[in-house]
UniProtKB/TrEMBL annotation:
Protein name: JmjC domain-containing protein
Domain (JmjC) ranges: 222-381
Keyword RNA-binding: no
Ranges of compositional bias, category Basic and acidic residues: 410-424
Amino acid sequence: MPEPSVRTEGLGSLSMFTDELILARIFSRLSAKDLISSVPLVSKVFYVFSNEEFLWKSLALDRHGGDFLFQGNWKLTALTPKERQTADPNAFPTMPTRVPVQGFTSHALYYRWYLSHLPLKEFHVDHGHVPRIDIKTIDLEDFRENYDAPCKIVMLKGAMDGWKAHEHWKGEEMLKRYGDIQWKVSHKGKQKLTMNLKNYMHYAKLQSDEAPLYIFDSDFGEKAPEMLKDYTPPSLFREDMYELLEENRPNFRWVILGPERSGSPWHTDPDGTSAWNSLLSGRKRWAFYPPHIVPPGLTLHPNGRGLYTDMEAPFPVEWFYAIYPSLLPHQRPIEEAGETIFVPRGWWHIVLNLEDTVAVTQNFVGRCNVRDTLEEIATSKKRDKDFEHFVQVLTAEHPEYTQMTKHVRREREERRQEKLKEEGGADDDDDDETDLWEALRAVCAHHGMEVPQEKYQVELPSDSTNTVFMTEKAVVKFYTAEKEARESFDREVNMYSLLQGSEVKCPKLLFSGQIVEQEEGYHLTNANESIEGGLLYVVASRLLGDPVRDVWSTLQNESIERSVDFLAENLRKLHDLKRKVSDEDVEHWKKFITKRDEDLIKDHESWFITDSTVISQMRDYIDVDRQILDAPNRFQLIHSDVNDENLIGYYPGQLPEAKLDTTKRGEGYLKEVYDWQPSGLIDFGDACVGDPMYDLVALHVSLFRCDKKLLRRFLETYGVDRWPLMREPGRFSRTMMMYTLLHQCNAMATVYRWKPHLIRVTDLRELEKILWDLSV
């Protein structure tokens, strides 16, 4: 019989658990007295565990708070009374020599040690592919249009010119000025911690923590008012509507100091704010993910309503060590001393300090994100007073936002009324989700597909009218919307039938039918007739990649142009599909447009986004009969909703079968790996016979972000001669502006999202010229 290992012998029945679990759940609860007296005597393994630095760090902070002088390691710091602590390393207390333990190894202990001594030179290799511009070369409107509105990260040079902070916030000068001030310190524990700068600098110089203490203080302006005179917000960020709240404003500015390996874990900035971060000294490595993509390694905890009340995030050096090699260049910029980075609203970000750093950062609310801020505050009933106060001061100073605030307030009240009408609260939602989950498993089993065993195996989009499950190889859509479910289902199935064998790049229809829950289980049948309680469903192949929305703002020009050409070629093929246009088709389109025209004023008033002056011009501006309905020769099969969620694509370097030569470097290699490729169009639930020009609305205002250069390229690739109205000066732009106003998806809200400055344009013909006149 083999001899038991040192670990098995030393842990006994605890050996069934991982070292990490034993340390976190048992040893972290022990006192300093336990760890230096009885525990080390139990076994060799207990002796090793009882000397772990992170345990003693927690005990030191529990004992001293932030009032300590670091004694070279955390065990000495925890055990040495404050009055006996010294700043002289030569006078540190001595500890008994640790006894080496033969035959015991621990990956958990080694991993912690490795991260605390990891050379960060590997993270210095490249600067990341984000735009770097001199702030003197861009004006405010250009910045809003090209970076703020489209939520695009940018690094600014020259934004800190003339700051006194360059001299006052460095080394000995900073210690002399602010050394005795108590600074808020961020750390992994739950207790609030403050340290004076002298003690913190002493600690930062000697420590070798995997997650060092990090000064992150929002009250520095109150503690040291003279610091506010040492810097001014860069010129592009001086419009800040949160200033209107005055003393009621939430925390918005922070001074940040930290040694290498310190940093901020994954987070998004609060209240829909954007941020700027100016680095006075050192280097920072950032990583970013768009708002709707949860970063890998981050655990979010749902509260039953799709919101998140808590999250667990690895500390920065741990996350970068595990994930950094897989990040795309635009996701991982380095910020150098003297640079200012713009962090768009809603974007996930994490920061790793590659050197000792000093920085200042502020969150702000400008015209591009004021709606985001209002909507985020409005989600919490506890913040009703904050919401109403902000609306009051905002509309008093900026009356042009009155309509928008009414819209946000109305949406808030509608959500609350819906919640009051629900029976059983969150449990009902859970039951619905369970029912659909079981229905999904039944559909997969019936059609011979792999049956998911756990919910984490499928991706569940949260913003679809119907419920969509995405497995590895297929997309299963249940038509759960009460209204028009059958009509939408029929349109989608018919479109897939027409698209089979065509050259349009799109999913393939695999199965469709109806599923009914019965006492003995689920029964699947065809969808020819409606069955009470039945759910219609469609199963289609899953295209490679993700929506272009996830990456559009980070794509290089070549990838964008390729996507535009792809769309032009595939929409032309869709429009050219051989299908006889019947009188019924034409009548359906005319009824749709006539109904949109009838509801025009009511809809725009209820959407509360378009200025009332613009709305008052719509009735005289739009001439449906003459401009739209008199052109039957233009009726073809159309998609109706070519937005940034419905174009799918991928990076070749992310393919499972990609064979990448990791020894390669340079632009050629980056292009080979990171050149985004479109794979197809999805979501044909709104497809119908209509005017192909209608497809240009969502394409231009959602996907192209109202960029007329891209629209021109699209039309040229599609074939300018195929758009007869372009031969008539002014008629093309007039028709497109009318379709924009008539669009069922509130296209004007999307226009204002990407071009927020247009909210001030109150003349419809001027809006037409800006958005659709291709001669300017």
